[in-house]
Amino acid sequence: MLQTSLETTLGHIELFKNSSDLIIILNNQLEITYSNPKYHQTLDIDSYETRHYLRDFRLADPYITLFKECLENGENQSKKRVNLIKSDGRDFEFAMHITPLSDGTQVQGLFLQISPSTSNKISYDVSDIRNIAKDNQRELTELKMALERETAERKKAKQQAKLASLKVIDQNNKLLEQIELFRKFVPSPFEQAVGQRNFDIDSVHSREEPYSVLFCDIRKFTTFSESISSTECFKFLNSYFRVMEPDIRGFGGFVYQYIGDGIMALYKYDNKMAANNALHSAISLQDRIVIYNTGRKRAGYEPISIGIGINTGQVAIGIAGTNHRMGSGAFGSTVNLASRCEGITKELSAKIIITEYTYQRLNNPKAFLVRYLGKSNIRGLKKSIKLYEVFNADEPRVREEKLKNSKETDNAFELLEQNNRQKAYMFFRRLERRSSYDNLPSIMVKRLRSHA
Predict the structure, then answer these.
(1) If I label 399, which of 65, 108, 174, 422 is the partner at 20 to 30 A Cα–Cα?
(2) Residue 347: Cβ within 10 Å count
(3) For the purposes of burial, counting CB atoms within 10 Å of the CB of 224, is it exposed (0-12), middle (13-18) or buried (19 or more)?
(4) By three-state DSSP, how is residue 78 classified?
(5) pTM attached to this predicted model
(6) Which fold has domain 6-126?
(7) Which CATH superfamily is domain 190-394 in?
(8) In this structure, how many other beta carbons lie within 10 angstroms of the beta carbon of residue 400?
(9) Residue 425: exposed, middle, or buried by beta-carbon count in 10 A (0-12, 13-18, 19+)?
(10) CA 36, CA 24: separation in Å to the nearest integer?
(11) Domain ranges of the chain
(12) Phi, psi angle pair for 225, to nearest 5°
């Protein structure tokens, strides 16, 4: 018995196609499952005739009995003389060798090899199938092992690629964090000027655009900072800037620069609302300081006060510096005048002062509490500039008194413009006597007295 299954044998039928012997494979029902082409040529009959005669041959005694015995006992059988008779009367004599096919548990079929009786040599040894099956099994095992190795290598490579990818992602995230951090040092309108390759500081990367410029400064900060340590000073400033910055962004502005305790903010004049936005922002900042001081008082700290100056006009923005150190820049008389207005708030005891250029660009000046402060000679400018005080953020009693005095202060400043200083002095002197909260009349009286 051959330890080769019917399925395995049928899987190697290519080996039998060129055999000069008749190869027949029967299943355990003694049904023909295969016959090789060479047999057709040997008997000189077509495929149909072959099937017909093989069927007669298979069922004829004593062969049918022999086949059944082989299926039952699983033993090889050989017959030296087997006669087949063709339909034309010719007969053929063969030698037949029968090999049972088994999967190791039961016989599944028979392998018949029929050769001319003149030859005692069997031309094809069916036992080679077992060797072939073993070789195939060995190759399959080797292939499986190679596949497992390749799978393991791919898995390892995939893990390494994943780790490398995670490392790249981590590095990219860190880089993005650094970029985001550095971006905070450069206001967004300046990004376009540097958003190019091969940046050369020698090339001019700037443009001139209309802005409303706001300067905000803490009153008496120098004295205040001398009473605390440098660490406490930075802690205070960061707390202060965090409180103030949202009221700038909330009205379409951006912080261009922190200058010590000062804040410089820009409001782009792209929808003709820059002046209104800057002024609303200034009022909101002053209101914010009131709330901020409430918290400082609860914590046992002294309150602070701020002054704000606003001017509107053309501002040159761009990048300044060297190839080793660069910085964003905003230049021009518009910036200088806004800074000067902030300084004048201290001199005139005002919270917010705007220039005539900002006043003229307000959509509705009457929507704000505004009074005229006359013309002022600004250092570096050829002509004097009209200034206005906005007192929406003043305390109610102060607002009320300034409203009551506004018409007479307007008349007094007009007299000064007409160079009638004596009459202007009388107006301010009269206002001073009746004012309890409005400090402007007293300041102007002292100023006119000193220049008398």
Answers:
(1) 422
(2) 12
(3) middle
(4) strand
(5) 0.62
(6) Beta-Lactamase (3.30.450)
(7) Nucleotide cyclase, GGDEF domain (3.30.70.1230)
(8) 13
(9) buried
(10) 7
(11) 6-126, 136-184, 190-394
(12) -70, -25
